[in-house]
Amino acid sequence: FAPATDFWVRVIGAPVLVVADGAGAVGDGIAVSLEMSNGRVVFDVDPQTARHSGLQLSSRLLHLARNLRQ
After folding, report:
1. Model confidence over 35-45: pLDDT tens digits?
2. How crowded is residue 12: how many other Cβ atoms within 10 Å of its Cβ?
3. Are 39 and 51 in contact (CB under 8 A)?
4. Helices marked H in 1-70
5. Residue 66 — pLDDT band, cuts 50, 70, 90?
């Protein structure tokens, strides 16, 4: 595997949806973060990061997100 910094250099601005696990992970290149809450998977979304990567997230996905980072 390539070092993490090499990954970010190749991914920034590319149409890649970066997803992480853990609370508060959105931002700084990460568009979606997943975590468990009361036995359910919940997620937060950073629409601006997705747009910066050339991705358009559906309104349905945004509606289901627990939090939207603005």
Report:
1. 999 999 999 99
2. 12
3. no
4. 4-11, 47-52, 59-64
5. very high
CA nearest neighbour of 41 among 32, 29, 49: 32
| Contacts for 43 with CB less than 8 Å, ≥ 6 apart | 32, 33, 34, 35, 64, 65, 66
Count other C-beta atoms under 10 Å from residue 6's C-beta: 10
What are the Cα distances from residue 63, in Å, to 6, 34, 43?
33, 15, 11
- At residue 47, the 3 state secondary structure works out as helix
| Dihedral over Cα of 33, 70, 47, 67: its sign | positive
**23: pLDDT strictly greater than 60:** yes
pTM of the entire predicted model: 0.79
Strand partners, 30: 27
